[in-house]
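FIELD: query
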Amino acid sequence: MSQITTHILDTARGCPASGVELSLYQQVDDGWKRLSGGVTNSDGRVPGLLEDGVVLAPGTYRMHFATAEYFSNQSLEVFYPWADVVFNLGAGGEHYHIPLLLSPYGYSTYRGS
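FIELD: result
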């Protein structure tokens, strides 16, 4: 299993958000380095975001969810064209699940399991 996983749920429609492009970045110096990315499947997930066995260094990371196209495809106003979730990884290589609860005029996240 990937050390970092994600899941996007469209809380307005009550279903997974498929077709959302996302990217995972690591903070380096005063910028960001892209590590991986993908597009959510019909279950709102990106399988294999990181290869099995990859353990990231402790530090600050960012998950960038490109939501504009997802809302546009539903003929909805694009209020949040993207959502960035910035989080810290500790040492030890434990699993981190970064879910996004999404609606046209709001979003939230938490550390999942």
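FIELD: remark
The radius of gyration is 14 Å.
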